[in-house]
Each structure stands twice: as structure tokens, then as C-alpha cells.
Amino acid sequence: MILVVAAFIVAFVLLLYMISPLISPKPLKLNGAHVVVTGGSSGIGKCIAMECYRQGAFITLVARDEHKLLQAKKDVEKCAINDKQVVLCISVDVSKDYSQVESVMKQAQEKLGPVDMLVNCAGTAISGKFEEVEVDRFKRLMEVNYLGSVYPTRAVITTMKERRMGRIMFVSSQAGQIGLFGYTSYSPSKFALRGLAEALQMEMKPYNIYVTVAYPPDTDTPGFAEENKSKPLETRLISETSGVYPPDQVAKIVVKDAVQGNFTSSVGPDGYMLSALTCGMSPVTSITEGLQQIVTMGLFRTIALFYLGSFDSIVRRCMIQREQSKASDKRE
């Protein structure tokens, strides 16, 4: 009897696995597509642009620094696969003035055609203890990391709906899945993208527009190097429990997920576990994905509890060391 039940379960899972591709989104072809990348002048954003260019896309790079944009343009152009491809650069702060963002997006579409995929990668990170972070930094991070994704998306979504096609990617962070010591200003701005993406996906799915939220881990970028200069000891020790990934590897994975129409994009085993643990009411694009989340949830929650215990231990040790150091200084 047990063997019959087991055989039935295996057959059912195999059937779902075969049916899954039939109900999943049709992959977006990047060859000839127009891809807009905000925050595309360096780091993950630039690597995403390079990866899309290698697949034949036309690219619009959007960032604030004109000098970095021009250098990024040269780097992206080296990845061309044909002489018809074009890289357009637009300098604008996507977090400040919606009308200006709307204007530059219109300009990009007039030159390279409607946007087939928008990659919202403009962002910044600030770490520090809650009471030590300047109050205006909380506002600034919400502007850059959240509104800096809302404005470009709002500027292209109407055309995508009219065309009944498109991809929208929001580049969040693993700190947008779990709140960690030192990220009281950063994590909320990245968590906000998840809520936006879930609500937007429900609105856009009938129009064949698919939203992807990417949760990259610590990535070897100029922004990460800058953040490390002021990162609290606790934050640094917690971050070191996971690896640092090269940006080109992250770019390949998130581009593949966006093209496939996957809602969640994760990198590495820790990223996979976090995505399964935090899936909640997030949409899935295949039955297989849903089954994997159901089966692994209990195991991953158990592992996560050990991680959380380790993080708490790090914080306590650092606190004790500081108190001992202060006491020693007073005695001297």
C-alpha cells in the first residue's frame, strides 16, 4: 500500500513537472529588444546591461554620473554581437522628479523603440546603528531605493500594457528579505520593493507583463566596497557568514529569471533558502516552484533558526566586548 501511494505521488509530481512549462510565461527574446537599466553606470546594473547586450538587446543606460555613464557605454559596447546594436546614455536622478524621469523615458523610447524590459537597479546602501544614522538618511534611502524604482516603472507601464508584453525587474537585496543589524535604514527601503512588486504583478499579469524581484547577496561592486568602510562590526561579521559574489555571475542569473518571467530571483544556496522561506503569498510562475517551496519550508525554517541564533550570538559578543573595553578604559 505504501509503495502504491509513493508511486502515485511520484507520478503526480512528474505530471505537474511536464505540465508546468505549458502554463508558465513565454520567455522574452532579448535579441532586438529594448532594455532600460537604471543605475547602469556601475556594479550589478552595468553587468546586467552587458549580459543583455551579449544576447542582442538595445540598451539604455540611466544614471546620474555622466562620466561613469560614458565609461559604462564603452564597456557594454564591447559585448556586441552585431553592428546594429545601440547603447544610449541618459543622465538623470530617477528618485527626484517624476516628470523629468517620464521625459527621459519618452526620449529613450523615441530613439530605440518601446521598452521591452525595465531593470530598476538604481540604489544605495547605508549601514549603521539605528540611533546613529542621521534622520534624513531614512528619507533619502526610501527616495533612491523605492521611489527610484517607482518613477521609471510608472513612466513605461502604460506602453507595456498597450503592447500586452514586457518585463519589469526590481533589484532588491537579501537585506530586503531579512532585517539585519545595521540595516534599519536600508532594509525597509528594499522590503518596500517586494510589496510594490507583488501588487504590480497582480495588476499586470492579465496584460502578459511579468515582474521579477531580484535578491542579490553581497556582491563585489564599488558600492559594496564603499559601504564596507563604515559598516558596523556586527554587520560585517554577520555578512561574512555568506560569500561575496562577482557581479557578472549575479547578472547572468537575474537576467535569466527576468527573461523567464520568474517572480523571484535568488543567487546561491543561501539566496534559494531565503526565497523559499519568505515566499509567503508571492506569486509563482510554475507548479514546480510552488511544490519546492511547500516541501522545503519546514527544513529551511529549522536551518534559519540556527542562523538567527548565530547572528544573535555575534551581536551579544560584540556588545560584551565593547562594555569590557569601556570598563578597561575607565580603570586606566
UniProtKB/TrEMBL annotation:
<keyword id="KW-0443">Lipid metabolism</keyword>
<keyword id="KW-0746">Sphingolipid metabolism</keyword>
<comment type="pathway">
    <text>Sphingolipid metabolism.</text>
</comment>
<comment type="function">
    <text>Catalyzes the reduction of 3'-oxosphinganine (3-ketodihydrosphingosine/KDS) to sphinganine (dihydrosphingosine/DHS), the second step of de novo sphingolipid biosynthesis.</text>
</comment>
<keyword id="KW-0256">Endoplasmic reticulum</keyword>
<dbReference type="InterPro" id="IPR036291">
    <property type="entry name" value="NAD(P)-bd_dom_sf"/>
</dbReference>
<comment type="similarity">
    <text>Belongs to the short-chain dehydrogenases/reductases (SDR) family.</text>
</comment>
<keyword id="KW-0560">Oxidoreductase</keyword>
<keyword id="KW-0521">NADP</keyword>
<dbReference type="InterPro" id="IPR002347">
    <property type="entry name" value="SDR_fam"/>
</dbReference>
<dbReference type="GO" id="GO:0005789">
    <property type="term" value="C:endoplasmic reticulum membrane"/>
</dbReference>
<dbReference type="GO" id="GO:0030148">
    <property type="term" value="P:sphingolipid biosynthetic process"/>
</dbReference>
<comment type="pathway">
    <text>Lipid metabolism; sphingolipid metabolism.</text>
</comment>
<dbReference type="Pfam" id="PF00106">
    <property type="entry name" value="adh_short"/>
</dbReference>
<dbReference type="GO" id="GO:0047560">
    <property type="term" value="F:3-dehydrosphinganine reductase activity"/>
</dbReference>
<protein>
    <recommendedName>
        <fullName>3-dehydrosphinganine reductase</fullName>
        <ecNumber>1.1.1.102</ecNumber>
    </recommendedName>
</protein>
<dbReference type="GO" id="GO:0006666">
    <property type="term" value="P:3-keto-sphinganine metabolic process"/>
</dbReference>
<dbReference type="InterPro" id="IPR045022">
    <property type="entry name" value="KDSR-like"/>
</dbReference>
